[in-house]
Amino acid sequence: MRLEGWRLAYRRHMTARTLGTMKLGYNTGYWGSGPPSGALESIQEAERLGYSSVWTAEAYGSDALTPLAWWGAHTSTVHLGTAIVQMSARTPAATAMAAMTLDHLSGGRFILGLGASGPQVVEGWYGQEYPRPLARTREYVEIVRQIIRRQEPVDFHGEFYDMPNKGGAGLGKPLKSTIHPFRTEIPIYLGAEGPKNVALSAEICDGWLPLFFSPKEDAFYRSCLQEGFDRSGEEGKADRFEVAATLMMVPGDDPERCADMVRPFLALYCGGMGARGANFHFEVFARMGYEDVALKVQDLYLAGKKAEAAAAIPLAMVEDVALVGPLDKIRGELEMWKETCLTTFLVSGPKQVLPLYADLILG
Fold first, then answer.
1. Is 348 helix (H, G, I), strand (E, B) or coil?
2. Is 258 in contact with 232 (CB distance < 8 Å)?
3. Which of 174, 188, 199, 203 could potentially form a cystine with 227 if both were Cys, beta carbons 3.0 to 4.6 Å apart?
């Protein structure tokens, strides 16, 4: 009854868009004490099975670019994406240099996924100020695009970035990259959760990387994206825009036990990330109708009661953002996901589950 209700809601509220073939990506995720076990073998298996892309991540440990280059050297067709490169970690010029270098080395397979991260990481790890991340993102993306296009020396003077810098020794001059890009347009995706940031991704980028997507929020996100498409002034942009979303899948006989594999992850993000009043993941679940749950989870998590925080997350909240339970249940719910604005599902897991994911999504 619940699934059918969602489907009816989509028929009433979805904007018209004809999607191409659904794509599947493999996300290696964050590192723990070292490289994820079996990552290279999983990446190669994903390529063999027809996955269109592989992705790496960074927080405040391993970086996203180095492992992508290392593992990408052992593949030949799959696209290589960062989900995400944190903008505060590098100047726009450094990011553009890395993007052009990886694009050359991979023969034009690189996707630059960018994100602002959050105030705790930006100010605590990178030692930079966080306020006005949307305005900073707009300038950052513009500079990266200018450098990659290599049409003229970069002469950019914004609120956040000054190239060449007007201070210092006074010897700075506008420069062009010493290398010609393999492609003058490298796809840029934006990691975003809030409505304004989602709209910004549609306005200035080529794709959006949502973390906690829920099919029942599809109409809301389509509205945000349309706002950005309209501002971009690019005809037909909606038809070529990509939405590559993380999709957690845990098959098993008991949905509750499968959900237990997801609950700690949700508790960490909606309860432990950021701070009170400055947690974008918390706000995602609050918009979905789980503000009371998210408040309880946050209270428990910040009090150090991580297991209790995870246990406080109801099955319905897990099922809104993940697929858990018997395969027949997952297949039925997956059809609802395929009706949304998503164009690529990003999955994670060991090598042995990749054929199952390929069968479910690409079969």
1. coil
2. no
3. 199
